[in-house]
Amino acid sequence: MFTLVVFGLLLQGLVVLASYPVQSLRNARCNGILPTPTYGVTGSLFTVCAEELIAAPVSRIYDTLIDFRNYHIWNSFVIDVKVPATVINPSDVSVGMSMDFTTQGLLPLLNSTSTEIVTVLSPGTDFAVNAWRSDDKLNGMFMAAEHPNVLTDAGNGLTRYVSWETYYLPGGVLLLTLQAQLKTQFIQQGKDLKKYVEGLN
């Protein structure tokens, strides 16, 4: 285990400075390990992913995903997000912003918390991406994980939503036992989003 941790730290030292072009995520689908904007695929351990076709425009879904103050209204996985007091609307969110997530469904009878940092804000009408990464206070050197949401106009009033989180060595090893629960919650989160956004029509 010590060797694995050391090797993972060396890998993270290389990839934390790298970046993966957002445009290259346009055709991402839920299949295997997926890259993230900050870390790419180097040192990746596993990905959990969800995909939906949503009858709403790209821009509306994009804004809903970064309207963190209102996650409690529709999201049964991320039930609360604490953001800076100055962040009221989606337009107030900025790259580098820190926020605290409260999630449920991963551990029996317990909620879990994590600090996240916004890494990508790329709005658009036919293609948009937003993303955030875990803040382990070590610049991703131990618990590196990132969550992109990719939105693509699928035609006929539909948007393809592909949302995933990729976990990296060495810290991702600690979450391997929760992989099934994470996948279940990601899928449910996608269904929650679809129901909520389509209900705004």
Could you explain how this protein is built, in words?
With 201 residues, the protein is an alpha+beta fold. It has a single domain, classed as 2-Layer Sandwich (Alpha-D-Glucose-1,6-Bisphosphate, Chain A, domain 4). The chain contains four helices and seven strands. It has a seven-stranded antiparallel sheet.
Determine and state the CATH class: Alpha Beta
Question: What's the CATH architecture?
Answer: 2-Layer Sandwich
Q: Spatial order of the strands in the main sheet?
A: 1-7-6-5-4-3-2
Q: Helical amount among residues, as a percent range?
A: 10-25%
> What is the average of the pLDDT values?
92
Sheet/helix structural class: alpha+beta
Q: What's the total count of β strands?
A: 7
Count of separate structural domains: 1
> Could you give a short account of the major beta sheet?
7 strands, antiparallel
Short description:
The chain has 201 residues and is α+β, with helices and mostly antiparallel strands. It has helices at residues 2-15, 58-66, 71-74, 179-198; strands spanning 44-54, 78-82, 98-107, 110-122, 127-134, 145-155, 158-168.
Q: Which key terms come to mind for this protein?
A:
about 200 residues; alpha+beta; Alpha-D-Glucose-1,6-Bisphosphate, Chain A, domain 4; seven-stranded antiparallel beta sheet; globular
What order do the helices and strands come in, and which of them pair?
Elements: H1 2-15, E1 44-54, H2 58-66, H3 71-74, E2 78-82, E3 98-107, E4 110-122, E5 127-134, E6 145-155, E7 158-168, H4 179-198
Antiparallel strand pairs: 1-7, 2-3, 3-4, 4-5, 5-6, 6-7
